[in-house]
Recover the amino acids of this structure.
């Protein structure tokens, strides 16, 4: 007994059990949270600075900045700028046309590729193609641009002539001046090639999340692969694929160099996608930046802000679609 | 006595496993035959009728091949399997269309890019030569130095931020997780030219008033952070929770269990993330043109003066337009592609090693 009593004096008081984080954890959590919020800070700063620099143009041009198509800077005899008018309509519509057509071309091909890789391809082919498609996503855009200029353009112009020959009665495909090079169609082709890897990998990811028990149930009921895909995979993955397409759309809208090399930029609204006249906001910025006057640079900042907001909205919609509809049926 | 009862184990060496679902040799010969038949028919149709060109050939081949195969399956098994065969052909054609541009790009860059490669390319600059000069003068060493500086500084800034973001999403899982995941996603969609414009408006106009590669690096940072953050997040998610719990159970603080257990366990994956980020920005052109400018001679100082870079070298040569200049652009692209390829291969290697 005495032995125990003696010992008890040496046993320290039990440590206080608490969920209170220690100082090192507080610092750690603070630093990590700070790092995590950096994306918010950066996006906010981009918006703020572009708005700050472009504000003069927005206030002086008003809505005309979005509804007219012109880029005029007028000088007086001494070379001072007397007035300038900027309007982005042609460029904006050109951007939308190019990226929508690109998505229309890319999505069927990407979905087919993703289905092939997920359900049909032999393992070796699958491994090889997944690597190659991932590699393609890492290709620099200038590589796509120069390849498109020298290799894709002749073929693309030939295909455009074929489409014009057989479908020319549809206004969108008409081309009175017979200029097929440097058209929005060719820009769309290269954009489609550039976004195929991203749409493919997102579709593949969505398809791989299709519930395995239902897939096996379909097979057990005697379904062919296609019947299984139609009954299980497509209903499950539809939202995710649409989200992936939107993400591709966002990428296509912001692409600069590849479009710049192939597209003939003209300040006019052109709906004939095969005709060699088009517009693109990102390429416009690159084109005008070199010899721009300070006020023009402000207009370019405003154009950049419009592009930024546009891609942000598209990405937001894509995120909503992928997260809300992507996991449906799980 | 009992030892005699036990029969000798039967020898199965000569028996191969039965795979009733595998194609028999006869089936293989027939499908190869159909493939060749479709090729020949398409070729004949292209030669003797109105169809022409590679596109016509490809479309005809797909139609004929899919047609014969699904008709044969229709006769043998009925319409359900015929449909499956048709879809199989179509999705394989889609995959083929995906792969064609990649192969074409690789072939073009290698066949055109290797012509302009000579040893001087890797230690000379362009300060005394124009893009249109013969291919045996001038070089792109200054561009490689520039690209290394641009990417190196961007790497130093964006890797900590990217990994911290990933740690926030996986370790802290605070109330901002969902919005931050969205913002990172949105940031990966920021057009590269907008990143350049932002640095131009925020730093170049009000503060430095001159191009420098540091500004280029800052613009590239904006493009690199999301790639690093997203890939790192995926990698950190793969680290089993047991490791974290073990760290905490041993009395470690969260800081120590993350720094000494989670991050070391994910090390090779995090390196992969960084390499993929570098591959993403190494060839980025538009922001570099805007804020880093472009130089034709060596510049080792990231904080002042325009800086050459591989994309700028390619861009300028492409813009010059003469035959030699275009050849220069292709060899620049070749060098750039080799760099991206090498980075990608290292990332793959590390990623595969981790999976094992």
């Amino acid at each position: 007994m005495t032995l125990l009593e003696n010992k008890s004096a040496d046993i320290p008081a039990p440590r206080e059990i608490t969920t209170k984080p220690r100082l090192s954890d507080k610092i750690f959590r603070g630093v990590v949270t700070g790092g995590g919020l950096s994306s918010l800070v950066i996006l906010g700063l981009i918006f703020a600075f572009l708005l700050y620099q472009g504000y003069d143009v927005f206030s002086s041009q008003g809505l005309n900045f979005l509804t007219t198509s012109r880029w005029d800077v007028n000088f007086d005899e001494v070379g001072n700028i007397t007035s300038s008018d900027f309007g982005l309509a042609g460029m904006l519509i050109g951007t939308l046309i190019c990226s929508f057509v690109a998505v229309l071309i890319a999505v069927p091909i990407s979905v087919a590729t993703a289905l092939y890789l997920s359900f049909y391809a032999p393992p070796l082919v699958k491994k090889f193609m997944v690597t190659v498609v991932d590699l393609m996503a890492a290709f620099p855009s200038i590589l796509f641009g120069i390849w498109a200029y020298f290799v894709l353009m002749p073929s693309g112009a030939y295909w455009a002539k074929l489409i014009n020959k057989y479908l020319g009665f549809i206004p969108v495909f008409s081309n009175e001046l017979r200029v097929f090079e440097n058209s929005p169609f060719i820009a769309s082709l290269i954009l489609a090639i550039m976004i195929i890897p991203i749409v493919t990998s997102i579709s593949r990811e969505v398809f791989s999340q299709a519930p395995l028990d239902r897939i096996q149930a379909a097979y057990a009921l005697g379904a062919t692969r296609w019947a299984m895909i139609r009954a299980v995979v497509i209903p499950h993955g539809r939202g995710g694929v649409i989200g992936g397409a939107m993400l591709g759309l966002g990428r296509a809208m912001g692409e600069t160099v590849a479009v710049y090399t192939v597209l003939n930029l003209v300040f006019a609204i052109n709906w004939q996608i095969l005709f060699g006249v088009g517009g693109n906001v990102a390429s416009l910025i690159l084109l005008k930046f070199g010899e721009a006057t300070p006020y023009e640079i402000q207009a370019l900042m405003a154009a950049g802000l419009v592009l930024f907001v546009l891609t942000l909205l598209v990405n937001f919609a894509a995120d909503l679609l992928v997260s809300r509809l992507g996991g449906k049926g799980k | 006595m009992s030892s005699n009862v036990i029969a000798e184990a039967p020898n199965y060496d000569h028996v191969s496993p039965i795979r009733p679902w595998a194609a028999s040799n006869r089936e293989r010969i027939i499908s190869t035959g159909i493939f060749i038949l479709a090729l020949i028919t398409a070729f004949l149709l292209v030669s003797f009728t109105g169809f022409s060109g590679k596109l016509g050939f490809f479309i005809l081949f797909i139609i004929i091949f899919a047609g014969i195969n699904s008709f044969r399956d229709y006769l043998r098994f009925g319409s359900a399997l015929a449909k499956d065969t048709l879809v199989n052909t179509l999705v394989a054609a889609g995959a083929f269309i995906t792969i064609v541009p990649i192969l074409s790009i690789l072939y073009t860059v290698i066949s055109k890019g290797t012509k302009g490669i000579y040893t001087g390319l890797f230690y000379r600059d362009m300060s005394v030569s124009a893009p249109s000069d013969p291919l045996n003068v001038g070089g792109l060493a200054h561009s490689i130095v520039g690209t290394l500086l641009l990417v190196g500084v961007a790497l130093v800034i964006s890797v900590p931020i990217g990994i911290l973001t990933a740690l926030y999403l996986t370790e802290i899982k605070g109330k901002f997780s969902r919005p931050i995941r969205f913002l990172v996603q949105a940031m990966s969609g920021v057009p590269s030219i907008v990143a350049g414009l932002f640095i131009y408006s925020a730093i170049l106009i009000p503060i430095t008033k001159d191009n420098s590669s540091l500004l280029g690096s800052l613009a590239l940072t904006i493009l690199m952070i999301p790639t690093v953050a997203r890939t790192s997040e995926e990698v950190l998610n793969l680290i089993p929770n047991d490791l974290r719990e073990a760290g905490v159970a041993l009395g470690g603080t969260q800081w120590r269990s993350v720094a000494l257990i989670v991050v070391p366990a994910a090390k090779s994956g995090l390196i992969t993330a960084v390499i993929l980020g570098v591959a993403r920005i190494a060839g980025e052109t538009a922001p570099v043109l805007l804020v880093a400018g472009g130089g034709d001679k060596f510049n080792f100082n990231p904080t002042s003066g325009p800086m050459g870079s591989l994309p700028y070298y390619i861009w300028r040569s492409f813009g010059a337009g003469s035959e030699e200049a275009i050849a220069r652009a292709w060899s620049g692209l070749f060098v750039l592609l080799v760099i991206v390829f090498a980075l990608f291969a290292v990332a793959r290697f590390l990623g595969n090693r981790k999976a094992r």
User: Anything to note?
Assistant: Chain B touches chain A through 91 residues (CB under 8 Å).
